[in-house]
Amino acid sequence: MAKRGREKNPSESSGGSNKSARGRRRSRKFVSSSPVASPPSAQMEISSSTSFFKIFFPDASTQKLRIPPAFCQQIDKKAINDMAYLRGPSGHKWQVELMQSKNDLYFESGWRDFVFDHSIQVGEILVFRYEGQNSFSVQVFDHSACEKESAFSAQPSKSSKGESCNGPSVLQEQPNMALVVVKKEEPDDFTYSRSLMPTKTPEQPSYKRWLSHNTDDRSWTEVTKPKRVPTIVSQRRPVTQEEIANTLEKAKSFASENPFIIIVMRNSYVYCSFFLSLRADFVRENLPKSNAKLTLWDPTGRSWPIIYVCYNGRHGALSGGWGKASVANNLEIHDVVVFELVKKNHLKMHIYRVVEEITPFKRGCDVEREH
User: Fold this and answer.
1) pLDDT tens for residues 319-365?
2) Which of 96, 132, 182, 293 has its CA 20 to 30 A from that of 230?
3) Helix (H/G/I), strand (E/B), else coil: 26
4) CATH superfamily of 21-163
């Protein structure tokens, strides 16, 4: 599927009105993956005086994000230790705190919500444009060097202090219903979540409680310690959009009394980063509220120990161990996997392949990833 990007008019005013995601998807933009590439400001025609970029690494960028010192002079000093707004590609805004520590400035409180709501993966690039009045627009580039498609449909999670620029949120949950079906606007990502218990409106945490919850940097870095893992190069034949759609329809017919979630595989899930993000509603209702070890059962009955990473009890992902399970089961992009919670901390995989015939992978270059 081609990725659609956003092209800004250089004459556009810094505080321009918010636009819909569709209005901004006009042309593809590329960021060179070369380690000696010229600064993104030159490649993307962005003024160096109002923009900066960051490469995302979980150890350094999950809890807070450091703003480059050379850029700090562009920010009004009155804005320091105050709230700022990040406008994502979807047009929604995320509220973060702009904090000073010694001589450095950071995005802190609220930043982690932005990271998880956009499913930011290791190695992805974020480009920030300062629009004045404590506001920044953010572009997200994934491993293809194009703007990340799913970022155009990202929405603030319920507990994040975000603002919608495009009308009401698509996500709607009805209380006291046994089955909750959530459909994201992007066509290739569906989540079906069946709860064993009636759903309840989650308690909104207080500001102090939110700040203090799960902020142990050491516990995070223990599960994200870099480890060298080979990338995977697919040898599968090209697939058609019809085949992709048919595979998803088959997966949607899955039924179980147990909670389950349907996820369409992406590049970063099965070829390189091996960091699989889970939808917040499924995490909240069915999975541990802190980092934990899960057991994943594949269709052949093999079990795989998986490191489950959870932030604030609302966002979760499969990290260490997921890569081995994915490669061993020859998962490819656009394949669909149903994760069924068969018992506490035990997930069973049901795999729906776009191409039934399995073609062995080719090993690529080593990359750093979470342990």
Assistant:
1) 889 989 999 999 998 999 999 999 999 999 999 999 998 888 876 54
2) 293
3) coil
4) DNA-binding pseudobarrel domain (2.40.330.10)
Structure tokens at 69: 């010192």
**179-369: which CATH topology?**
At1g16640 B3 domain (2.40.330)
Which residue do the tokens 């994502």 mark?
88
Task: Give the whole-angstrom CA distance, residue 172 versus residue 312.
Answer: 21
> In DSSP terms, which residues pair with 162 in a beta bridge?
94
Tens digits of per-residue pLDDT, 242-273? Answer: 999 999 999 999 999 999 999 999 888 888 77
The domain spans of the chain are 21-163, 179-369
Q: Both tokens of residue 232?
A: 């995977």
Q: What is the largest CA-CA distance in the chain?
A: 61
The CA angle 241-246-250, to the nearest 5 degrees, is 150
What Cα–Cα distance (Å) separates residue 327 from each residue in 268, 270, 278, 290, 332? 12, 7, 19, 26, 9
What residue type is assigned to position 24 of the chain? R
Positive/negative CA dihedral, 125, 126, 129, 130:
negative
Question: Residue 261 and residue 347: Cα distance in Å, rounded?
Answer: 10
